[in-house]
Design a protein that fits this description.
Elements (H helix, E strand, L loop, with lengths): L11 E4 L5 E4 L8 E2 L15 E5 L5 H20 L12 E5 L2 H9 L6 H5 L6 E4 L4 E5 L4 H20 L5 H11 L2 E4 L2 E4 L3 H12 L6 H5 L3 H10 L3 H14 L2 H15 L7 H7 L3 H13 L7 E2 L1
Parallel strand pairs: 4-5, 5-7
Antiparallel strand pairs: 1-2, 1-3, 6-7, 8-9, 9-10
Helix pairs in contact: 1-4, 4-5, 5-9, 6-9, 9-10
InterPro entries: DUF4124
Pfam family, one: DUF4124
Protein name: DUF4124 domain-containing protein
């Protein structure tokens, strides 16, 4: 039971003849007692992002842009996935001026897994959960570096608040946070042309998995298959999640999945589709087929 209390109104409680406890704004019984309420203290604070420039040469306007981008990702989780984020996930961002310095930093960093170190040359950025640190480097197309920061901030929030979320969904949301922004007073997810073009290529090469098979993978299986396939799984995760985000039904489905995993559920996603997605697996598979064949990647208004 959720009760919304006014800060000025008195609240009374009493127990009826059946032993059921009631609440009301006035005393309905001579035995009614006034409930003493303590107003909750909000823990929300402005997002403080520590930005460490290691040769990236960030301008002050770019630093401010990074702060705005990070806030946009936080607000998406708070307002669209209903995570009720009352405190921020502490994160520092280390921005290197070139890829070699980035790779060397990761490979020499204590506490990072051997797999992450060996795979560092294939990544555009990384979130280090043990250290609450995001590491990126200046890419040839500078704009993509800022998109990578939003991607890794999504991982920071997900890994901290709902660590049991499947890898495909964790990665899929992060892929779409790369183009999150505000438009006409609401959220907008811009086109992701890289994923769209890769998806078209993978479709022609018959590398995309049927939705049923894709959602049946464990996180460990998904991660292995992702690396072995040359990150085909990551593209599919991004586009499948994007498809879901494009409709209210799909957005609600993602939100329910995230909260199931937040509560500690470890059920493979496929087994939750029929209960949580309107139309079940058949409908999801049908929509995915239409999505893969669409003519272009458009913005999504949320």
């Amino acid at each position: 039971m959720i009760i919304s209390f006014s800060s000025h109104a008195k609240i009374y409680s009493w127990v009826d003849e059946k032993g059921v406890k009631h609440f009301s704004s006035y005393a309905k019984s001579t035995d009614a007692e006034e409930v003493q309420l303590e107003a909750p203290v909000s823990q929300w604070k402005k997002t403080e992002i520590k930005i460490i420039d290691e040769g990236f040469d960030l301008t002050e306007s770019e630093r401010e842009r990074i702060r705005r981008d990070v806030v946009a990702v936080y607000e998406f989780f708070d307002k669209k996935l209903y995570f009720d984020i009352y405190k921020t996930v502490p994160v520092s961002i280390k921005a290197f001026g070139d890829k070699q310095a980035y790779v060397e930093y990761i490979r020499n960093h204590k506490g990072i897994s051997r797999q992450s170190k060996d795979n560092s040359h294939n990544t555009l950025g990384i979130y280090l959960p043990k250290f609450n640190e995001i590491v990126i480097y200046q890419q040839k197309y500078r704009e993509r570096s800022f998109s990578t920061i939003k991607h890794e901030v999504s991982h920071a929030i997900t890994d901290t608040l709902t660590p049991f979320v499947p890898s495909w969904l964790n990665e899929g949301i992060a892929e779409n946070m790369e183009t999150i922004g505000f438009e006409k007073g609401g959220f907008s997810i811009g086109p992701h042309l890289i994923n769209y073009n890769h998806m078209k290529k993978h479709k022609r090469e018959s590398k995309l998995l049927p939705v049923k098979e894709f959602l049946s993978l464990t996180s460990k299986e998904w991660r292995k298959k992702n690396i072995r396939s040359g990150y085909v799984m990551q593209t599919q995760a991004g586009e499948l999640t994007r498809m879901l985000l494009s409709t209210d039904t799909g957005l609600n489905f993602i939100s329910r999945l995230m909260h199931n995993y937040k509560r500690g559920d470890k059920t493979i996603a496929f087994y939750l589709v029929d209960d949580e997605y309107f139309g079940g697996t058949g409908m999801l598979e049908s929509k995915w087929s239409l999505w893969v064949n669409r003519k272009q990647s458009d913005s999504i208004a949320l």
